[in-house]
Amino acid sequence: MNDILDEICELLESDMVYYGQIARCVDSQDNSSVSQLIHALLCDRNVEIGSVRLRDREYVEFVGWIGTINERIQRATRTVQATEPQDREFVYWLCLRKNVDRFEDAA
Asked: Most exposed of 4, 10, 48, 50 (fewest Cβ within 10 Å)?
């Protein structure tokens, strides 16, 4: 698992990483393996999970999810499960904490 963590962190140094990339890194669509990986990244690697939106034609904004680590992992799992398999590639994203544009509003 450490090799996969290092690989994801290396990708994050240059850009955001999306769910499809993560699933391929663990070579599985097994939610428990992906969840374990996400948990390790959120706990130990200064990584955030969230969504993206197009701010303008040239900039994609990363919006970090709020909540505890377990709440955010559960949200990610629910989002994947609620999405048709052919549409899952970009259901959530990871970003280094230092590159987060903003966090969602606590409504």
From this structure: 10
Beta-ladder partners of 103: 64
Helix (H, G, I), strand (E, B) or coil at 81: helix
Cβ(51)–Cβ(93) under 8 Å? yes
- Chain center to CA of 57: 23
Nearest Cα residue to 52 out of 7, 84, 95, 98: 95
Which pTM value belongs to this model?
A: 0.89
How far apart (Å, rounded) are the C-alpha atoms in residues 58 and 68?
32
Instruction: Please give the pLDDT value at position 102.
Output: 94
Per-10-residue mean pLDDT for the chain, 107 residues long?
Answer: 86 93 76 86 92 91 96 96 94 96 84
Q: Token pair of 75, please?
A: 């949200």
Place of tokens 């949200």: 75
